[in-house]
């Protein structure tokens, strides 16, 4: 965002809400009070989008949501937009690839899987998980049974602990489907620590981060879906300038 703003000759001020909904609302109100030309937000909680939207609309200041889709997407006021990926596509692509890989491994008679979700207050995590479950309900993929699904809050460490607990409680899975690459890598670390050969487990992620791609190169992460973070950030700046 900062690079695109500089390229366009625009001044940009960046604030970190530190995962605090109330703090993010205060920051938006402060931006409004200072008379900025536009506001760009990556939501702490997608369910809080309506409040931010109303504040910006009352002030007549354009608002651009980036990366995380607002919960009231269908009812955004004039001069408010969302710049990000289609979460239906990302979760669906991930799940179908995992399904095809399991079939190729001869698991079509039955496979068990875990889903590592992102933050439950983010629409992206809920939608990606819903996509996976819908794919696994199709005739092509209904041999895959989800043993459990829990949130890692998008965190590698949390996902590692979660996977460790699952392994302690039961057998190794045939597949792990994570809402993001960081969580997928955390699950992989736990699987490896428990002596499980990664050739025996299909692990999916989303984002195609550098760490994720390195994990694929190492033969550990099986599949990831590209999310263009740079494009979303730059696109958010472009949208804000166009609306201002």
Give a brief description.
With 244 residues, the protein is α/β, with parallel strands linked by helices. It has helices spanning 2-7, 21-33, 49-59, 87-104, 123-136, 156-169, 181-193, 210-217, 229-243, and strands at 39-41, 63-66, 80-83, 111-117, 144-151, 175-178, 202-207, 223-226. It folds into 2 domains: 2-84 and 229-243, Rossmann fold (3-Layer(aba) Sandwich), CATH 3.40.50.2300; 87-226, 3-Layer(aba) Sandwich (Rossmann fold), CATH 3.40.50.
Question: What is the number of strand segments?
Answer: 8
Helix content: 40-55%
Number of domains: 2
State the name of the first-level CATH class of the largest domain. Answer: Alpha Beta
**Count of DSSP-assigned helices:** 9
Largest sheet: 5 strands, parallel
What is the element layout, followed by pairings?
Elements: H1 2-7, H2 21-33, E1 39-41, H3 49-59, E2 63-66, E3 80-83, H4 87-104, E4 111-117, H5 123-136, E5 144-151, H6 156-169, E6 175-178, H7 181-193, E7 202-207, H8 210-217, E8 223-226, H9 229-243
Parallel strand pairs: 1-2, 2-3, 4-5, 4-6, 6-7, 7-8
Helix pairs in contact: 2-3, 4-5, 6-7
